[in-house]
Design goal:
Elements (H helix, E strand, L loop, with lengths): L5 E2 L5 H12 L6 H8 L5 E4 L2 E4 L6 H8 L4 E9 L3 H5 L6 E4 L8 E9 L2 E5 L2 E2 L7 E4 L1 H7 L3 E9 L10 H19 L5 H25 L3 H19 L12 H16 L3
Parallel strand pairs: 1-8
Antiparallel strand pairs: 2-3, 4-10, 5-6, 6-7, 7-9
Length: about 270
């Protein structure tokens, strides 16, 4: 392995993987710089019932916000699990997501090389974590960690012009929808498993990833406003989960924080 790129915020493995690929192509950057330059702290999106911002905005659509102005783009290809090993042998510096031990979901890695019977990957880690920045998998281990259909991403040249379409209005609309659905959810009682699902689908964008993005852009006062409500949410989740979430989260304070987030987003036009 020629170098190491570290993760600097939660769930940034794909951005760290992208930084590694770019460094191998002679472009030095970091996960934090990619997120900031792409404007991801100011973008909210929705996929089905799930609200997304910051590190959860992954894939070509979002990576290209950083890559296109630099004459590059992300090329994605679907690869069936059965032919993944063959595919990787001819696609070095390819990013894929594997289900590895120690990770709750998929973890982005970059194919470096085939070495005897091993597929060698760059493994994004936190500095000082004690984890290995390079992992070696046999074909059997690789297949076991793969989904039935994989998305493989490579960085290639981009000959077009960067898109200038603003995502501000769309983000503001999603931000408002996120708050409204949180408000409704907090005023009703739910089964225990529904709270677990809502943590990822409903609350994560504003009360986890949004906080990370605000801190990354030095909007510390606003980040703390959301963190206060995060503490209430976590207290409820760690307890018996009886009563209403609205008794733990101040919806009035949360609404004010969301409105301020919206004003900050508008300033980025």
């Amino acid at each position: 392995m020629k170098q190491v790129k570290y993760m600097h915020f939660i769930s940034s493995c794909s951005f760290t993987a992208l930084a590694y690929i770019l460094a191998e192509k002679g472009i030095e950057t970091e996960d934090t710089e990619i997120v900031r330059a792409a404007g991801l702290p100011w973008i909210f999106a929705r996929e089905g019932k799930r609200f997304l911002t910051g590190p959860m905005l992954q894939g070509k659509k979002w990576f290209d916000l950083y890559l296109n102005p630099r004459g590059l783009c992300m090329c994605e290809e679907q690869v069936e699990r059965e032919r993944l090993a063959e595919y990787l042998q001819t696609h070095e510096l390819c990013m894929i997501g594997l289900r590895l031990q120690g990770h709750s979901g998929k973890h982005a890695v970059v194919m470096e090389r085939k070495e005897n019977k091993y597929f060698v990957f760059f493994n994004p880690i936190r500095e000082g974590s004690g984890q290995a920045a390079e992992i070696r998998l046999t074909e059997e281990e690789l297949i076991r960690a793969a989904d039935p259909v994989m998305v493989a991403g490579s960085v290639t040249q981009f000959d077009g012009m960067p898109g200038k379409k603003t995502r501000t209005e769309e983000s503001l609309s999603v931000l408002e929808d996120n708050y409204r659905e949180i408000e409704q959810f907090c005023r009703e009682t739910h089964a225990r498993e529904e709270y677990d699902k809502a943590m990822d689908d409903l609350f994560r964008a504003l009360l986890l990833d949004g906080i990370t993005m605000l801190e990354l852009t030095e909007e510390t006062e606003l980040a703390e406003a959301f963190r206060k409500e995060q503490r209430g949410l976590l207290a409820f989740m760690k307890g018996k989960r009886t009563g209403l979430l609205a008794e733990y989260i101040s919806l009035e304070r949360l609404k004010a924080a969301v409105e301020e987030y919206g004003r900050v987003i508008q300033k980025q036009r």
